[in-house]
Amino acid sequence: MGEYGVKVTYSGPILFLSSGQWAHTFTSLKERLPLRNLHWRSVSRPSVRSVQELDVELVSLESVRDEPSSQIPATLLERPLLNIYFVTCEDADTYKNSVRKQIRDWHTSVTQRKHQEWLICLVIRPDAEGTTKRLFQRGTLLDKIRADFNVPKRERCVQLAWSIGSEDPAAWTDLISKMKEGIISSFDANIIQREEEVKRSEVQRQMPGWNFCTFFILKESLATSFDGMNLTEDALIQYDELEASFFQVLKEKNLSWFGQLGGTAPNDDSAPLLSVTKKPYRELILSNTITVFDFRSYLLARQCFLLARLGQLAEAAIKAERFITSFARTLQENKKDLSDFFLESWIYSASIGVVNQCDAWADAASLEPPAMISLNAAKAELLDLARAQLDKVGIRRGYLPPVHPFSMSLPSSSDLNPPQYPPSEPVEARISSQDLIEALRGRDEFDRLYITTTNRTIQTYNSCNRRRFALKLHASLAALDNARQRYPSGHAVFASLPGHYVAQRWSSLEGFVLLKSMESYPQQDRPKEKEWASQAAAFLRAFVVHGGHQNVQAEEPNEAAFASMLGQQKVDFVRELVEGLRDVSLEEDYIVQNHPSFSVRLEGENARIAETEDGATVDVTVMNSMPVDVLANGVSVKVISGDEEMLFSSSGTEISLPPGQTRLSLSCPIPSSGLFKIDCSSVRVGKVAFQYPANPATNRPQKPEKETKKIIQKSQLLRLPYDADAFNVQLTFPDDVVLDATPHLMLAVHTGRNHVTTATLRLRNPDDEVMFDTENADACQGTAADVITFSKDCIVIQDVPPNTALRVNVPYSGVRLDTIKASHGVPSRFSGTHDNLLRFLCRLTTRPKAPTAFDGSSLGHAKFQRHYQPETLVLKLKYRPLKEEIESRVTNAINAVSEHHPELINDKAWMWGALMEELETGDRWQELLTRRGLSGLREAVKARLSDKAETEIERMSAGLLEVVEVLQQPVETKPDVEGCLTLSIPVDLPAVNILNAAHLTIPLASTDAIFSGQPLQAILNISTSFHWGSGWAPRDGYLLRFDIDPEGTGNWLISGQRRGEYFAKARSLRTNKCFEPFLISKRFKDNSTYETKITLVPLRDGALLLPKIAVTPITDDLEGHDEAGPSCETHQIHAAERVNVLPRSARSTYVVNQS
Q1: How far is CA 24 from its chain centroid?
Q2: pLDDT tens, residue by residue, 1116-1136
Q3: Cis peptide before 658, with omega less than 30 degrees from 0?
């Protein structure tokens, strides 16, 4: 049977057991084994235990001893759980005379055996099954057997209709079912009895004479019994409880049942850890001579074996690894009783042995990919543990230097001093591990084993996707190359590893490999180039983050080791790297972004104007996180606002940055003003530029608690005040723009405080959509032309004194900056586009007539002479951008206040910038222009003074109060404001042959109420003019057709002549009042007016528009004209008029409750 399954005995008459029928029956029964789907319901357990498959060993009853071989059997399954008696009988007489006595003798024998079930099986031929149930018989033979031997409430007799050649599988159903019941019943009775014995023993634990080893054997019999029944989880629970009991005994320090600690027997350092047959563990336990070393090994082997049976190979490997590391500390504490190198040999052999055993289990099982990955992870930990023992052995034997990373495996510094061994007793004689014995014969043999074990560990780590652990071992191999003076190979590995550590976010190991790479670099006699600079910058990053403080608590594996790698020489090593960055040979600048060594921060949001020269100055604080002084070649900050960029940089060629904070002033000679955003900052050391973008977009993952706070710059704003005395160049529209002429832009130059010796101005468009013709540019009126030279590519000004304004008109081509058009109706409608808010003063003129007034908010009235050729109108718009008007008012107000308060002269620029920013916020600019007051303006600007001194706050607050009061005073706006610009728009008048003016009126007083459904009398008046055409004219006029509400809006019901025709003929236009807006000259003649009356009925309430009138010419009778016919337009005089219609009143009744 082996270790698994149960025993079932069989017996029967001698003649039957020696017959061919029994041989065939026995063979058929064995073919139906093992049993499947057994269910154990026990009163001692709340849930049902299921046995998917159970092996059954059929043995003869005579071959089984009644008494067990041991007082405490190793398993309850040593004895049979079921006894079966097979019998065959042809008739009742034979049964009565002989068979019954045989069964009775067998029954008497088996019922004397405790906790064993029995079963009687009657074997008959399939064709005889019906003969046993004859009509006139009292009962079948099976019934007689049941009557003689069955016990109440339990069926123990079954019938098997089977013979040689029978193929009916259903015949075995009753027998197999009864076998399952008998086995489970017997097993349950045995388990209950043994559990009671275990409980009694455990209760007597504190009594004298109690023995843990006896208790262990007793309880282990439960585990082996469960295991034999394939109840593996229940078996594992028993061993876990035994382990807890042992720890309790260990805690009580009551180890009198054990021998010594152990580990001194031959091959203890190299025997397979998970083997349960390497020693007679049961006999040792029963004799109370087992050592703690053997007991712990045996218990672990049993637990791991059961975990493997459950398919939990990864858990078995993890449990073994934890046992090795924990028990190794126990052995370390008692190292004096062990031989030299025993501990290293045992850990190495145990780890390798567990890995090999797990590989064997995995080959026999079909693991899913996730389970295989977990198993490989546990195996990799064991292999790494074995490799660490090679580090210890190598250092103690002098094969490896006692430095990082080899020293990481040493538990204490005492292991750095190898012991001295007498020559007569070599170390190999003290251990039995063949691998270590071979490795200790020489350095080459040791290297071979070290490299093989490390590569195996690397492959296992890679197979479970733990690549950063594999990278750590690559570094160990590279360190071995350096120790063997194979510098090119070692440096190649070290140089390739930092990139992997960046992705794996293991900065401490990144720093270690970079350190080793930097140390091996000089050994190759290579110049310091870009590769060296890259590695140096990467090492300094890791050093600042993880290696700057030795007492910092390690957050990653080996982090504390990296912090102490350099020891006392770390400052000198870092200083050497920083000085090397200044001397590195680079063809172009090497940019390093977001390096934690430096940070640059603005001191405030406001820049200062350089009073004696153009430009501005800002104060910054530079943080040097390295422990050495850095001699930087420059510090700069770039700010942006839209497409404009400005660079503030330090003065001088070298700047000393000691550790900690250093305050610097950066300047920019380019004059500008407004609100800017910090784009990036930079610290330059030689040709290496450490850049810090305000919004870093880096793929390097950072640790938020340590690195991010040093390198990520908070988005900062910088306000540059306006400097009225600075050199200024602007490109604007000229004062007078004529759309039909060559387009020009005005280039305005103001020298400010500067005496300009030579200045070259080049105009470029970023998109190359506009081409500037600087060669044909000319100076504006009032500008000295002798100081300006125009060429094809640029404009040069020379020898211009301070405070001089130059204005130049520059022609351009390429795009139309504004689009202005006229509609095809009369009067014309103009539309245009502009990016800024404007204040208009408009005039509509004719050429060559004098201009007439134009309102700008409605159509202008004009007069024209009658010509067949269309005339040209010129619309002249005088405008001024509101921003310029607001800036002018703020400037005038500040100048007016500063004249009475000279102490505010230096604050004018700051006040102007702050006021403009607040006026541009929200609707305050509208309040300023509409004279509605400036609510909250002074308080908002005063809030910006928080970073000023107290005396400055008082002075500037008083000045702001007066400036706001001046701005709130009304300002008279004159029609011809100085500084307004002019836009001339030439428009060709459209030609219309027939122009109608339709007017629909309802003669009611304004106080009369109109209700829906109420009839209203209306008068329709249509005036026609033929004087706007440019072609032919009729002899007498046109036949016209009018249509009221042709679109059918549904608002009005029309009664009367909704559609009609009339003849429009020539007559004087002097008496036509309806067409008055379209008159040009009273000496011309108009045609006719048609009038009719209709009734309008509003169909709904509300503000209703009056119906539209459509007029079209009837061209059927016209002769001598083109096919298109005359053009006709109709102007709706009543287009904007609405009629307020009220709903019909209705009566409703409601009830109000009185409380």
Answers
A1: 71
A2: 655 545 556 788 889 999 888
A3: no
